[in-house]
Each structure stands twice: as C-alpha cells, then as structure tokens.
Amino acid sequence: MAGTGVFAEIVDGDVYLYYTEGEWKPSSSGKNVPIINPTTMKTQYKVQACSQEEVNKIMESSKTAQKLWAKTPLWKRAELLHKAAAILKEHKAPIAECLVKEIAKPAKDAVTEVVRSGDLISYTAEEGVRTLGQGKFLVSDSFPGNERTKYCLTSKVPLGVILAIPPFNYPVNLAVSKIAPALIAGNSIVLKPPTQGAVAALHMVHCFHLAGFPKGLISCVTGKGSVIGDFLTMHPGVNCISFTGGDTGVSISNKAGMIPLQMELGGKDACIVLEDADLDLVAANIVKGGFSYSGQRCTAVKLVLIMESIADAVVKKVNAKVAKLTVGPPEDDCDITPVVTESSANFIEGLVMDAKQKGATFCQEYKREGNLIWPLFLDNVRPEMRIAWEEPFGPVLPVIRIKSVEEGIHHCNASNFGLQGCVFTKDIAKAIMISDAMESGTIQINSAPARGPDHFPFQGFKDSGIGSQGITNSIEMMVKVKSTVINLPSPSYTMG
Ligand code: G3P
C-alpha cells in the first residue's frame, strides 16, 4: 500500500514529506497542499508547502552534489540507475495505487506507467554509457586555408542542476524521462512534481533514494506554484529546465533567462484519413488514440480530418467502438475515468457547448457527472468552433469533413500547435508527401500519435515545444560540448 512498508518514511501522519539532502523532511512553513481525488472529489493526500528558503537550500546542496557526481564514472552512474529501475518495478503496485487515486488513471494503465518508467531508466543507463563515452577528434586541415597545426578533442560535460517539471498525466514516466538522462549525464536533479501526481512522484523518488544515490543529488520539492513556481524557474542556481505541461511553459520560457530549455506544451494532433485507408484500422486508432486515459495525453488524437466520401463510414465504425467504452472509476479499470480536476471538466464542457451552439453533430449524448465526462464524438465540426483549434484534454473528439488533402494540411498548419499528426492511407508515397507538408514534430503513418517507444525522438514544433526529447536526445540535451584544442608551435616546426 502507498505510504507503508519501505515507503513509511516518506509520510508523517497524513502529510507526505519533501526530499532534500537524502532525507525526508517536513517543511518549516507548517503548511500543506491538499490533493483532490478526481473521482471522489475529496482530499486524498497532502504534501508539504515548501518555502523559498527551502528551495534556496535545495539549490545549494544540489550544486555541491553535482560537482562530485560529475566525477563519478559512467558505469557507476548506470549501476545506480539500473538499481533504481529494479526497485521502482518491484514497487509498482503502491505507486500505481497513487496514480489511480491522484489522477484517476485506469488501474492497468497505472501499473503500465510504472513498469514503462523502469524500462526507460534502464535503457537510459545503457544508452548513456555508450554515447557519453564518445567524443570527437578533429584536425584543422579539413577546413580550407588551414594547415594541420591544430587538433581538437571534444567531450560532453554536464550542464549542472536540472530543474524537472513533469505534468499531471504521467507524473512518474515524464519525471523519470527527465531524471534518468540528467543523472547519467552527470547532472543533479531538482524535481517539482505536479500537485496531482505528487505523491506518486514522491514514491518514485524514494526508489532512487533506496538505490543509494548520493545525498543532495536528487531533491524533490512540493508546494504552491504561487509561492515557489517562479522562484524555482528563475532561480540562478538552475542550469537547465525540462518542462512538460501546458501554457505555463510559455511564461517559464519568457522568464528563464539564458539557460537551455526542453519544453513540451501540448498539441492538437490531427488524424488525416484518405479514401484508400483501411477504415477498421482508422476507427481502432481514432478510438484508442482519442479516448485512452480519457483523452488526457498530449499525443491524444485531438482532431479527425476525413475525406467527405468516406466520412459516414468512418463515423459509423467509430461510434460502434465508442459505444463499447466503459465509463466509471479508475479502480474498476474503466476506459473513461474522471478528468483530473473540476476546472478541466468545466473547460471541456465549455468547448462542447460552444460546438453545440454553432451546429456540431453530437454522435452521442453529452453526459457529465462531477469530473466524469462520457466519451463524445462530434461530427460536422467547422473552423469557427473553438474545439477545431483548442485542446480539450478530455474524452471529446471533433471531426471535420474535408474536400481535399490540401484542406486538411492547411487546417493542421494553421494551428498554433505542432506536436504530432497522423495520416491513414495505403499510398506510402502520398503519406510521405503529407508528412513533409505538415508542420509538426512527428507524423505517424497508419497509426495514432504516440510518444513511445521512449527512445524515439519526441519534439513539438511551434507552440508545442522547444528541443527534442526521447532518451538519446534528452541525454544529448543535458550536456554541453567541451573542446580542448592542441596547437602545434608553427607549420615550419620540424621534428629533427
Ligand atoms: O501526454 C504526454 C505524452 O508524452 C503521452 O505519451 O506515450 O501516451 O504518447 P504517450
């Protein structure tokens, strides 16, 4: 059970502690932040409301720990990461329980998130050992005009203190996708988990603690965004921010200053369906891509663009599948579970009502109880509707019927987002041309968008992000190149 057994030391009474200098501590603020269970809408857990002074102390110890860690051999870093991965997987049940209670993730998906996170850590350890041990050797005579008087050796050195801010929807997986690359590359980590999902993240951090990482190398600070949010992201001790989330990312990037940023801020991933597509495959991907975890994935299908001639057939097949989705509590492993907060549910409802008022066709009856919204496929959506452009982050999926492929591509490219997209067709040449024309970080051919496999590059264009993620790219992003140039005395220097 969460907060018991090996996890007993991370909680005091009914309030979870924060993690600093290798210890679990209460905040001197004496305050805490409640975490509301999206299903019961009652307080499920409480976490510490840390102060700015505590953030300052964390930054100091993080900097000190990083200096020593940077000298730790790669194989030793990898060994500890493998250990953390094994401990995490061993304790998948209590961590998954937190995900069910805090973010209403369906029970089986919650376990999958933890196991996937362990795999991600192990892969990162192995990838880091290989790639970080490699540098470059360059000679000057390959540049016109120079003789061979200079030799350059490059290596990869850590950035320093990495601030990791994952989102509520994958508070474990999208935390370790930042933590593991940072650590293998010789950095220290300050983790600020999302409020919903914080307790799962604290359990995950304890697995790193049990693995035996040095004190101060990993810290986890919880609290109110209004008190420590800007203070963390603008802190002079931070050398890089890796953020996944919503609009807050724009304000972070405006304030962060001259440090590397890795950001993923959501999307409006569109699915373009051509006439020759396998319609059963299309329907299966639309439903899985649009409705898994109730549409609360940045890579969820958020818009379907179907050629008019096949639209009726696709809508019929999708509706048949939507009718089979189970709706209810995450403990019962339902397909559709309550969305994360009441304000999210209200926002989704606002998009639905706007579409209704402007004439969209509701394929199912709109139904909501508390934070639980029944799956809804909206046909005949038009560009003047908000849902044609905005990201619901809920189980509500709009369809726009298109007359040409160009119309579909034009709509996608007019969006501020550019995370992923997908195209369904049997004509591979056409699919590649569409991929080339779409201004998105990734285009999937004949499959719904997805971040995984976790070692694939993952990047957003336009307002969807900065930088590229995925295991290898994240490791590369969390180092800087250091050159040492050996200069020979002069071209005329002789060996005799
Ligand atoms: O919403 C975050 C995004 O990374 C989802 O990941 O693997 O479900 O596509 P995935």
UniProtKB/TrEMBL annotation:
Which reaction(s) are listed as its catalytic activity?
Answer: D-glyceraldehyde 3-phosphate + NADP(+) + H2O = (2R)-3-phosphoglycerate + NADPH + 2 H(+)
* Localization per record: Cytoplasm
Q: Name the protein family.
A: Belongs to the aldehyde dehydrogenase family.
Q: Does the keyword Lyase apply?
A: no
User: What is the protein named?
Assistant: NADP-dependent glyceraldehyde-3-phosphate dehydrogenase
Organism of provenance: Zostera marina
Annotated active site residues, numbered on this chain, are E264
What broad class of enzyme is this?
Answer: oxidoreductase
Q: What does this protein do?
A: Important as a means of generating NADPH for biosynthetic reactions.
Q: Which UniProt keywords apply?
A: Cytoplasm, NADP, Oxidoreductase
